[in-house]
Amino acid sequence: MAAMIRFNNVSKFYPREYEALKNITLSIDQGELVFFSGHSGAGKSTLLKLIVAIERPTSGDISVGQQNIGLLRRSAIPYLRRNIGMIFQEQKILYDRNVFANVMLPLQVTAFDTKTSASRVRAALDKVGLLNKEKADPITLSGGEKQRLCIARAVVHRPTVLIADEPTANLDSGYARDIMAVFESFNQVGVTVLISTHDTMLLDTTQHRVLELDHGKLVA
Amino acid sequence: MSSWLSQHGYALMRALRQLAAAPVTSLLSIIVFSIVLSLPAGIFILLENLREISGQATDTQQMTIMLDTVAGQADIELINTQLEKMPAIEGFLFISKEIALQELKQESGMAEVIHNLGQNPLPDAFVINLGHMSANEIEKTQVVAQSWPKVAHVLVDTDWVRKLDAMLEVGRLVVIMLASLFGAALVIVMFNTIRLQMLTGRDEIELSKLIGATDGYIRRPFLYFGTIQGVVGAALAWLLLYLAITKLNEALSELARLYATTLTLNHLSWKDSLILLLFSGTLGWIGARWSVARHLSQIDHESTVS
Ligand SMILES: Nc1ncnc2c1ncn2[C@@H]1O[C@H](COP(=O)(O)OP(=O)(O)OP(=O)(O)O)[C@@H](O)[C@H]1O
Ligand SMILES: [Mg+2]
User: Fold this and answer.
1) Across chain B, what does the average pLDDT equal?
2) Pocket perturbation via mutation, ligand 1, pick of A45, A51, A215 by most ligand atoms within 8 A of CB
3) CA-CA 20 to 30 A from A44: which of A26, A129, B120, B241?
4) What pLDDT does B107 receive?
5) Where residue A75 sits, what CATH number does that domain have?
6) B208 — contact with chain A (CB < 8 Å)?
7) Quick one: A15 and A67 in the same domain?
8) Cross-chain Cβ contact A111/B207 below 8 Å
9) pLDDT at B91
10) What number of helices (H) and strands (E) belong to chain A?
11) Which has more pLDDT, A177 or B36?
């Protein structure tokens, strides 16, 4: 299997000299499902943000597919992000529009035609079990439903890589299992999935690879 | 191509929706545009009309050479041949003192007074049609004619034309200065309008960037918005000026009737109307473009730092 994501000696300093990641080297295969674990502040979000170029590395090389992210011009970044689905730790749901319009957004920015878009949005909502809520105001959704909305939005444009930053945070274990099942199903059709979590239940029961971060260092 | 079209269609739709979402605010800024534009455009219209009037005046420019009372037939012949040698003038006419006296008698009803004079006080004269000569050429011709023998006076009535020309030139500068100054103000107004919109829509802009929107995609609805407001503002200014000139013409026709002439002001020409729309649309576009560039990089910066 070809490597989908590669980190070669990557470090990230935030302003005021705080070193969030130290000399990270890793490789994730195409079609793999990988967990990132670690305490709060260990650098999980930072690592995931580097992959979609929300943050840029202070040193080291990162490649996604065949692309070296460090060499990417600013104007090329949108096209990198269109191949990746991201579930943000802070969700970033737009509350001025309904569920359907929220999930539509990734297609809108890439100029999909309206008819294909609508059927894709419904398919994504169906996949996460939110089809009956497409017209709902997102403020009325439960925590688990909001998280599923975010998953639908991350997969609606059929990315090859899916990144989820703490997708099961604040959910009880029943909900968490449901959501994990959704990720498994995407992984089964060949999507590379990266999930950060400190949900020990999830980590203890999984058969997938777990990479642990500790104070910015990869320890396992 | 169709994706390009749908992108622009979408951006246009967003811009229109934005206009409709805050109708009062939109209307107010359109009115600001129209008021600010109508001042320089109004002055421009008046100048164009003045220029036309002065153009008509220069069409009938004349120079009069008055001869000395002692000038004889030989002197008249000499001037006649000199004038014939001048290609720049359109024509000339000799008016002898007898004919001049005759005309004067008929014209002014001063027959009695003139009769009592006993002797003809008028000189022989040449009236020269200068055609479309420039003020400079006229002056040169005047100097040359002055140097001929037995010429008493050379009269040209170009002074007021000159003054009018100078005034028109000043007016033109005033229009350019006002248009630049007010144009800058409109750009700033648009900058601020877009700034507020981007502040309101900040979450969406930030998220759009994170999921693969290009700067162009984010910019486009704002550019449409700015351009539309500029063009509609200019259209409203045009309408205001049209109504103002129509009203003025009613008043002028009343005045002109008293003087038994006709006097009407022209409206803005089609070409100048188009320029007004383009100018204002461009101002809106520039303000929007500047604002988006500035606030987009600000959002970029803040969303990666926080
Ligand atoms: N924009 C930033 N500026 C400065 N420091 C930052 C910034 N973002 C993160 N950090 C710091 O970098 C370290 C790693 O943060 P990160 O968000 O990657 O941790 P995390 O593992 O995702 O934590 P959590 O489990 O709480 O989400 C933290 O100490 C954090 O304070
Ligand atoms: Mg985090």
Assistant:
1) 86
2) A45
3) A129
4) 67
5) 3.40.50.300
6) yes
7) yes
8) no
9) 85
10) 7, 10
11) B36
Lowest mean pLDDT among A90-94, B87-91, B200-204: B87-91
Q: Do A12 and A69 fall within a single domain?
A: yes
Per-residue pLDDT, B306: 40
Model confidence, pTM:
0.78
Predicted pLDDT of residue B303 = 61
pLDDT in tens, A115-133: 788 999 999 999 888 999 9
CA angle at A6 for the pair A42 and A165, rounded to the nearest 5°: 40
- Give the number of domains in chain A: 2
Residue that finishes a domain, picked among A157, A179, A204 = A157
Ligand 1 in contact with A14 (CB < 6 A)?
yes
How confident is the prediction for chain A on average, in pLDDT?
Answer: 90
Residues A133, A210 within the same domain: no
Distance B234 CA to ligand 1 centre (A): 51
**Residues of A whose CB is below 8 A from B208:** 105, 109
User: Is A90 inside any structural domain?
Assistant: no
Segment (H or E) for A213: strand A209-214
E strand segments, chain B: 62-67, 91-95, 125-129, 151-156
- In DSSP notation, A109-160 reads TTT--HHHHHHHHHHHHHHTT-GGGTTS-GGGS-HHHHHHHHHHHHHTT--S
Last residue of a domain, which of A103, A125, A157? A157
**Separation between Cα atoms, residue B135 and residue B112, nearest integer Å:** 40
Residue A54, chain B, CB below 8 Å: the answer is: yes
B67's tokens = 């001869």
Angstrom CA distances, B211 to A77, A163, B205, stand at 10, 12, 10
**CATH placement of domain B62-155:** 3.30.70.3040
**Domain region containing A121:** 95-157
The confidence score (pLDDT) of residue A51 equals 94
pLDDT (0 to 100) of residue B41: 93
Flag whether A57 is in a domain: yes
Tell whether A167 is covered by a domain.
Answer: yes
Indicate whether A88 belongs to any domain: no
Report the chain A residue with the minimal C-alpha distance to residue B297.
A74
- Inter-residue contact B67 to B95 (CB < 8 Å): no
Assess whether A175 and A207 both reside in one domain.
yes
Any ligand 1 atom below 6 A from CB of A43: yes
Best mutation site among B204, B211, B297 for testing chain A: the one with the most A CBs within 10 Å? B211
Residue bearing the bigger pLDDT, B263 or B196: B196
* pLDDT level of residue B37 (50, 70, 90 thresholds): very high
Name which of A109, A139, A153, A162 to mutate to probe chain B: the one with the most chain B Cβ atoms within 10 A of its Cβ. Answer: A109
Domain ranges of chain B: 7-57+162-305, 62-155
One domain for residues A30 and A123: no
pLDDT over 50 (residue B305): no
Model confidence over A161-187: pLDDT tens digits?
Answer: 999 999 988 777 778 888 888 899 999
Whose CA is closest to B65, among B1, B6, B131, B153? B153
CA–CA dist B165, B1 (Å, integer): 53
